[in-house]
Amino acid sequence: MKRFDQINMIPFIDIMLVLLAIVLTTASFISQGMIPVDLPKAEQTQAPSDSDEKALEIAINAQNQWFVDGQAIKAEELASILTNKPNTTPVLLRVDKAAAFEYFIQALDVLKAKQFNNLSIQTEQAQ
Predict the structure, then answer these.
(1) How far apart are CA 122 and CA 56, in angstroms?
(2) What is residue 63's DSSP assignment?
(3) Residue 91, burial from CB neighbour count under 10 angstroms (0-12, 13-18, 19+)
(4) Which residue spans traverse the membrane (predicted)?
(5) How far, in Å, CA of 84 to CA of 74, rounded?
(6) What percent of the chain has pLDDT over 90?
(7) Rounded to whole angstroms, how far apart are CA atoms 59 and 70?
(8) What per-residue confidence (pLDDT) applies to 122?
(9) Quick check: is 94 in a domain?
(10) Where are the alpha helices (DSSP H) in 1-127?
(11) Lowest-confidence range among 20-24, 44-48, 52-56, 81-85?
């Protein structure tokens, strides 16, 4: 039997490079949000601004379920959640195109009542 003077590192490096390629490939497929929202399309869209302050994300999915920063809430709880936030906080509103329009209006109504004026509505670019 042949005795090795040193360990051959090339197969180890090959395996590590393959694993790195797999990790980088799968990382690019991870979606940004965890709440599936099929956004409506719009011709005139603008990329969100990079502000220092993190936006409060309000999402309504196709089943008309409400979420604030990824946490499921009831629609009636939105006003009390906004009471604890300064009204200068940026708000990102993501509403599924299959959601009832009344919930979109209800969210806007609560935001206006609490005087949240820094509002962005997220859509997808129409192609």
Answers:
(1) 13
(2) T
(3) buried
(4) 12-30
(5) 16
(6) 36
(7) 8
(8) 81
(9) yes
(10) 10-29, 78-83, 101-113
(11) 44-48
